[in-house]
Amino acid sequence: MPALTLFEKVWNAHIVRPETPDTPAVLYVDLHLVHEVTSPQAFTMLRQRGLKVRRPDLTVATMDHSTPTTPRGPDGRIPITDSQAAAQIRQLEENCREFGVTLHALGSERQGIVHVIGPELGLTQPGKTIVCGDSHTSTHGAFGALAFGIGTTEVAHVLATQCLLQSRPKTLSIRVDGRLQPGVTAKDIILAIIAGIGVGGATGHVIEYRGSGIRALGMEERMTVCNMSIEGGARAGLIAPDDTTFQYVAGRPHAPQGADWERAVERWRGLATDEGAAFDREVTLDASSLEPMITYGTNPGMAIPIRGRVPQATGDPTLDRALRYMGLRPGQPLLDQPIQVVFIGSCTNSRISDLRQAAGLLKGRRVASGVRLLVVPGSQQVKRQAEAEGLDRVFKDAGADWREAGCSMCIAMNGDQLRPGEYAVSTSNRNFEGRQGPGGRTFLASPLTAAAAALTGRITDVRGMLN
Amino acid sequence: MEPVRRICSRLVALPIANIDTDQIIPASFLKVTIREGLGKHLFHGWRYDSAGRPLGDFILNRPEARQARILVAGDNFGCGSSREHAPWALLDFGFRAVISSSFASIFRNNALKNGLLPVQVEPELHRRLLTGEAGEVTIDLESGTLSLADGTRAAFPIEPFARYCLLNGVDELSFLLKQEPAIAAFEARRI
Lengths: 467, 191
What we know:
Radius of gyration of chain B: 18 Å
CATH architecture of chain B: Alpha-Beta Barrel
Low-confidence stretches of chain A: none
CATH architecture of the largest domain in chain A: 2-Layer Sandwich
CATH topology of chain B: Aconitase, domain 4
Helix content of chain A: 25-40%
Structural class of chain B: alpha/beta
CATH class of the largest domain in chain A: Alpha Beta
Largest sheet of chain A: 5 strands, parallel
Oligomer: heterodimer
CATH superfamily of chain B: Aconitase, domain 4
Number of helices of chain A: 15
Low-confidence stretches of chain B: none
CATH topology of the largest domain in chain A: Aconitase, domain 3
CATH superfamily of the largest domain in chain A: Aconitase, domain 3
Mean pLDDT of chain B: 96
Distance between the termini of chain A: 52 Å
C-alpha cells in the first residue's frame, strides 16, 4: 500500500469516474450546503432543463448573507426592509419548497452562517466531501473533510447530479509546531501563514495543516484556520481528525449514533496522512514565536505583527494603491491607529469560543467613546448559548450592539456596513476595498485584538491588557 | 452556450495584482436572482464616484474600452469570493477573455463555464501586455495560442475538456448527466 495523504484518501474515496487525459474526474459530493445569494440562478438552470434535485437528503439550505441582524419583531420575524434582499430570501424559500430541500430559514432556531451551522448540526463529518457556493466552505476542512467553494453553475451541477467535474489539485503541507503565547490565537496563525505564502501562494493546492501547534487547537480554532485557506488561494484546507474532532461531533443532531458511531470513529481514525506520504510542497511555522497579527492593506496577505510597521513604498502599484486606500503612510506603525468601528463576527470568528474570548476582555469595561462595537453571533444556537452564559450582558454592558445571526458586516450586504473612510478592526476574513461598505477601511485581527481595540479606540496590543 | 473559437481585440489593461471578485462586482449587487445585466456594475467601486457618476480617468470609462473584448490584469486575478457574478459581469460588459500571469482557481472555473477565456501567460509577456500598448491581439482557442501584431506568439494552458466544451458550445452538465449509471453504481457500492 502506498503512503497516502489525508487529502488523497478522501479524494480517492469519492471518485465516481477517474480523471483521463481528456476529461476531469467525476467527484461525488456527500453534503451540499446552499444559501440565498449563489443559488437562485442554479435552481433556474434546473427548472429550465426540467431537472430535479438528485439528492435533497444530502442538500441543506440556510439564509445568512443578505439577512438582517436587527432585533426580531414582536411576531418573531425579522423585518427585511431591503426589497431586493427580501425577494432573494423569498426565492430561496420557494426553491427549497419546490425541490424538497431542507431549509433553516430566518426565524428558525437552526438558522445561521452556513459554515457555522454545518458543524453545529453534525452535518460536517470527517472524510466527507462538502461543497457550497461560497469560498469559505474550506472551513469544514477542520474536520478532515474535503470542503471547497464552487460557483453557481457548479451548484447546479451538484443539485442535478450530486457530482462535480474536478482536476486533482496539488498538496501543500503546512506544519505548525510549538505553543502559542498568551494573547495569540488561531486567527494569528492563519494571518501569519497567509502573510508568509502570499494571497495567491497556495493557488491550485489543497493545504493540510499539521503539527503540534494545530493538534493543540480546539475545533472552533481549527475552523478559523481552515476558513481562511481560500485567502491564500488554496482550494481547501484540511486537518486530520482526532479525539478533539470526535468529541466535538459526538451527540450532534446528524452525527452517527450507537454502533454506527463506533464504526465511524474507527473509519475516521484511518484518515490521517500516512507516515512517509509525500506532499507537492511543504511549509513550516513556529507557533511559539508568533505575535498577534493585523492587516494593514487591502488583501489578507498584507498582514504584520501588531507591533510591526507598514512596509516601505517600493513603487509597487498594488501596495501603493492599498496604502492610499487605507490612508496609511509607508513605514508607519499601526499601534495607536484610531479606529471607529469594531466588528466581531463572520464565519471566521463568530462561534462561542470567539465570543467567550472577546467577552473575557470586555467584562466590566466600557467601549471607548466614539467607537461602535457590533457583535454578531454566527448562528441562533451560538446566540442562545452566549445568552445562557450571560455573554450578551457583558457585551451590552460594555456598550456593544448584540445582534441576530448572519454574515452581517463581513460582506455588508444587509445594511450592516462601514461609512466611507471609517476604520474598523474586524474579526472577519477579507479586507478588500469596499468589502465592509464603500470606502470602509478594514484591519483584520483576532477577537481578542478586536475587543482590545474596542476598549481603547485604537489598534492595541492585547497582551498588555491580559491579567 | 455559444461556441468560442477566436477573439481579436485591443486590450484594456488594469496593472493591479490580486484583483479580487469584490472589486469585479461588489457584494451589494449580488442581491439578484438572475445573471443578466451585471455589466453596468463591473468594477463599480473603481468606476463610479460615491454619487454614482463615472470617473473619467478609470480605464473602463474611456471610449476605447467599450469596444475592447480582452482585459489584461495583474497577477492572481479573481481571488476571493466564489461569486460567479464576476465572470457574468465581465461578459455582460463585453469582455470575452482575461489575460493574467495567474488566476484564482474558483474564478478560473467559473469563467470557463461561461465562455470567458482565462489566458495565462508568462511573466515577461504579461509585463509587456500590461503596458496596454500591444495593439490588437488574437486569442485562438483551437491552437491555444495568443498572437500579437508584431508576430509574437505564446501558447497558453487550457484544460482539454474545457477547451472541447468551449469550442463545441457543449455544457458540462450534459456530460455529467450522462454519468448517471456510474453515479448510481457508486452510491450502491457505498451503502
